Amino acid sequence: MTCVFWRLTLAAAAAFLLVVAGQQAKADDVTAISTGGQGDLTMCPAWWIDRNCRVYHHIKLPAQIAIGDKVGLRFGSNPKDYRFPVARIVRGGDSCSVFSQTAETEDVEKIEVASCQVVPPAK
User: Fold this and answer.
1) What is the pLDDT of residues 50-67, one digit of tens each?
2) Where are the domains of the chain?
3) What Rg value do the Cα atoms of the chain yield, rounded?
4) Which neighbouring-strand residues pair with 98?
5) How many CB atoms lie within 10 A of CB 116?
6) Greatest CA separation found in the chain?
7) Dist CA 78 CA 71 (whole Å)
8) Which runs of consecutive H residues, i.e. helices, occur in the chain?
């Protein structure tokens, strides 16, 4: 009986730590940023085709990006047009990462903005 109690206690403690860690990670999420006009785009093709992500530097960006936007991008030596869906924006210091999905942050499509400012929510 004591063993079961400790397992439940440890499981509850682990669940609590995961929730707290998740809330901490969300604390740096923002809803809109000003971009400074450029960033680096990471494109990751479907994993079953190619596991290598490609980075395109100095991509022209609009002055502001917000969650829910579909940002029109033109990139590559043989220019490609793409509408990047903005699902999540995370600020880290003076830079921001703009993700095309909410959950994953590794090996996913994203835009890195070296110098960004948070745009306050409209009132």
Assistant:
1) 568 899 999 999 999 999
2) 1-28, 31-118
3) 19
4) 89, 111
5) 25
6) 67
7) 19
8) 2-27
pLDDT band at 10 (very low <50, low <70, confident <90, very high): very low
DSSP labels for the chain? -HHHHHHHHHHHHHHHHHHHHHHHHHHTEESEEE-TTEEEEEE---TTT----EEEEEEE--SEEETT-EEEEEETTTTEEEEEE--EEEEETTEEEEESSSS--SSS-EEEESS-EEPPPP-
Determine the residue type at 49: I
Query: In the numeric block, which tokens belong to residue 49?
Result: 């085709």
CA 77 to chain centroid: 25
How many residues are given for the chain?
123
Q: Which position has the token pair 């990047």?
A: 84
The pLDDT of residue 83? 96
Instruction: Name the pLDDT band for 44 (thresholds 50, 70, 90).
Output: confident
Whether the predicted pLDDT of 72 surpasses 70? yes
Half-sphere exposure of 26 (CA within 13 A, CB side): 8
Decide: helix, strand or coil at residue 36.
coil
The per-residue pLDDT for 3 is 44
